[in-house]
Specification:
By secondary structure, the chain is an alpha/beta fold. 42% of the residues lie in helices and 18% in strands. It is built from 10 helices and 9 strands. The longest helix is centred in the C-terminal third of the chain and has 17 residues. The protein is globular and about 60 Å long.
Length: 280
């Protein structure tokens, strides 16, 4: 493969090489659970290469081992392959199970911000028997694999959606940390689109900017999925992580009120939370 480091933004690469032994342990647990290799011996070789990357203090050796590690990872395939409908459906059902107690009973209009290929969006739409034209999945790029019961838009920041107070349900599943410097504007746009009695449900990482080792691990997870799915490395940018309390503070400034929160105790430090508009 071509030089992975040269294809990445420098600030993203610098986060990756801050991986420590704790992060290495979590990353290997993630890879063993989520990534499949035709040659099982590659797992052991990959772990040794990552150990060398973590243990060496030489910048030159870190760069060399980084390339070796990326070459090995690119030989794997995600268990959440776009061709594995059964696994994807089960994953979507699991995500919905985490939030089902909050999902409003009567939904007409549904917006998913950062919907990816729309697998979760589609499942919610099916459960609620929603019309395709009333279900929107937004992301920065249109996916190649699409579900036929939802509408896709590459209007990732919501600013071109003109229907104020329209959506009964808006979801952001592990999307907000990708908004970066646009976070405040996008959250305001989401607030304007949400109906007065609607609900915004988010799924995010409970990680503050000070947790350097955890952030490095999570960025490795992003890189791993990008490599095994043959996606563009140039699209990877440093995520803007916030703790649950930090994000709640920002949401309150926008005008939201938290109505529920649940920590999932998974390998990604995830939690789900529900917000509504503050109405005086």
């Amino acid at each position: 493969m071509s030089n992975t480091k040269q294809a990445l933004r420098e600030d993203f690469y610098l986060r990756l090489i801050q991986l420590n032994r704790e992060g290495l342990s979590k990353l290997m647990a993630f890879i063993k659970k989520k990534i499949k290799f035709e040659q099982e011996t590659l797992i052991g070789e990959l772990e040794k290469a990552l150990e060398q990357l973590v243990n060496t203090e030489s910048i030159h050796e870190k760069e060399s081992m980084f390339q070796v590690v990326c070459s090995m990872i690119s030989l794997g395939r995600s268990s959440f392959s776009t061709n594995n409908y059964k696994v994807n459906y089960e994953r979507a059902q699991s995500r919905i199970k985490d939030i089902k107690s909050w999902v409003p009973q009567n939904i007409v209009f549904y917006l998913d911000v950062g919907g990816g290929d729309g697998e979760i969006t589609s499942c919610i739409a099916l459960r609620k028997k929603l019309h395709k034209s009333n279900v929107i999945s937004l992301d920065i790029h249109l996916p190649t694999k699409r579900f036929d019961n939802i509408t896709y838009l590459d209007n990732w920041d919501c600013k071109e959606l003109s229907h104020r107070n329209r959506y009964d349900l808006i979801t952001c599943f592990e999307s907000i940390h990708h908004f970066g410097e646009h976070t405040d504007n996008i959250l305001h746009n989401i607030y304007n689109l949400l109906s007065p009695r609607g609900l915004l449900i988010i799924r995010e990482h409970d990680v503050s900017s000070e947790q350097v080792s955890v952030i490095s691990y999570l960025e490795w997870v992003h890189l791993t999925y990008t490599l095994v799915n043959n996606e563009h490395l140039q699209s990877l940018t440093p995520s803007c992580y916030r703790s649950n309390s930090e994000l709640e503070e920002l949401m309150i400034k926008v005008g939201f009120v938290k109505v529920g929160c649940k920590h999932l105790k998974d390998m990604f430090h995830n939690y789900v939370a529900a917000y509504k508009k503050y109405i005086s």
